[in-house]
Amino acid sequence: MGKQPQSIQEGIVERVVDGDTVTVITANQTKLRIRMLGIDAPETPKGTKFPGQPYGPEAEVYLKQLVEDKRVRSAPPQRLMSWPTIAQRFEDEGIDPSSPNASS
Fold first, then answer.
1. Within-domain flag for 41
2. Average pLDDT, 10 consecutive residues per value, the chain (104 residues)
3. In this structure, what CATH number is given to the domain that contains residue 72?
């Protein structure tokens, strides 16, 4: 079986959920919740039931600085084509949040 083409999604980051998950609004107003592959950020607090993990809020703030309100593109990795909410690439003018040099 040959490789299937990747489904590229484009939109504006409406909200950063935590250090590795964002909500993107596409041109046709579809909301996509995208978790970035290769990034395992600490969890942020979830009300009174989950206090979060150390540095979770800092990871969220950092990702907001990189991508909030910016146009982005994402593509699911080939092996997870049935899970389009996991992004292999997440780009805005060459920014790759998984890169150690993302803030430069």
1. yes
2. 64 92 92 85 90 94 92 71 52 55 47
3. 2.40.50.90
